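Follow-up to my post from last week.
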Amino acid sequence: MRIMVHEQEREVAAGTPLSEIAASFPGSDLFIVNGCQVSGAYQPREGDGCWCLRKGEMIQEHELRRLLSLRHTPGVQEVISRAVVGIMGLGGLGSAVAGALARIGTGRLILADYDIVDPTNLNRQHFFVDQIGMKKTEALAANLRRMNPYVDLTLHDCRLTAANIPLLFAGADVLVECFDDPVLKAASFRLALTDMKTMGYVGASGMAGFGDNNLITTVAHRPSVFIVGDGESEAKPGQGLMAPRVGIAAHHQANQVLRILLARAGMLMGL
Amino acid sequence: MKIICNGTEYEVGQGTTLLHFLAQLQLDPDTVVVECDTEIIRREAYEGTLLAPGQNLELIRFVGGG
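User reply:
Got it. Predicted complex:
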C-alpha cells in the first residue's frame, strides 16, 4: 500500500509499524500521522500522511506549515493562512488572543497598543519580567515570533481612536476589540455596526474577578459581530483582572475569530 | 408616552432626549451603544435625539477591563 512519508510517496507492506518506517530518519522519536501524534507501534493505513521527527529539533517554515495543515486539515489551514486579523489593545485579552492566533498560523496579525509593559500587567498579560519598560507591540511581537516565527506582523504603537481605527485596520478580515477602556469599547463597537460593516468583529465586556466560568458567553449582535464576556464584571477596586478569567474571555474571542473566518469561507454552517 | 428598552416598557415624558433617558438609567452615555428601531445612533446624536412613543431601544453597555 502507498503512504506519504514527509510528503514523499512510499510503498510499504500493510501492517508495517511506524517505528520501522522511521528507520530512515535516525533518532526520530516523535511520530505524527494525519496531524495527530501516535506511538511508533502505529501501523499506517493506505494514504496516511506520516512525519517522523526528533523531539526538540528545530523546524523549518515549510515543515511548520505542513504540520499545521496536517493538524488542522488542509482546507481549514488554507483559510487561516490567508486571514488578516486586527487586534486592538495588547493587554490581558489582546496578548492572549494574539498568541492563540499566531500558534494556529494566522497569515497576518495587525497589533496596536500605545502602552509599555509594566509590572502590574504580569498577573495576566503574556509578557515577561525582562520585558518591563518595552513597548507592548514590540514585546508581544518578540514573543509571538518565538511561538511561530513565520507569522506576518504589522505593529502600530499609537493610541487608537474612532477616527484612526478604520485606517489602521483596513484590509483586516476580522477585528478583535481588546481594550480596557469601556468608552473605546463602545466607540469601536459603534464603528463595527456602522462604518465597518463588512469586517468581522469580536468585542469583549465583563471578565474581571473570579466569577463563574460559564457566565462568560459569546453573543451574536449581527451575523459576523460578537461580544464576549458576562456583560457585568467590570475591573474595579476589589475586582481586578486576573489571568484565568481574562484568559477564558480571550480564548472565546480567538475561537470566534476562527469561526467567523471559516464561516465566511463556507466551511462552517450556522453562522 | 411609552417606549420599549431592552424588552422592558418605560414611561417617559414628552421631549425626553436619548441622553436624558440614559441619565435616568444612570448609564454613562459614552459606554453605551444604542440601537433605535434597528438603527445605530451615533454618539454625537444622543443629545439631539428625541424619544418617540412606541420606539424600541436596544442598549448595549460596556464595562471596563481587558
